[in-house]
Specification:
By secondary structure, this protein is mainly beta. The chain contains no helices and 11 strands. Helices cover 0% and strands 54% of the residues. Strand 4 and strand 5 form a beta hairpin. Strands 2, 4, 5, 6, 9, 10 and 11 form a 7-stranded mixed sheet that branches. It has a 4-stranded antiparallel sheet with strand order 1-3-8-7, with no helix packed on it.
Length: 118
Amino acid sequence: QVQLVESGGGLVQAGGSLRLSCAASGIRFSVYTMGWFRQAPGKQRELVASITSGGSTVYVDSVKGRFAISRDNAKNTVYLQMNSLKPEDTGVYYCNAQRERSPSGNYWGQGTQVTVSS
């Protein structure tokens, strides 16, 4: 049974920081691209950042220079360090796992709420 469990969300003032964690179980973590998505009220879910098994990263333009994604394969965990948070970063943040070189093997966590007050 595959599980992705996010933690670290909460309420923070603009300019503050949060660190999200996503612990994976039931998958061979090292062969998955891990990603963080977010969904604001009334908006579509969007990719925030992703990291491949080889450590290559991708960020949406709006978070470049403020967010950093990393992974610890020994702990089957992916992190999202979020600095200089803005009210527009508010939303539910979801962890995603996509098996590389395979059309199947896509999994989602339950989401964690991030609220940035102005």
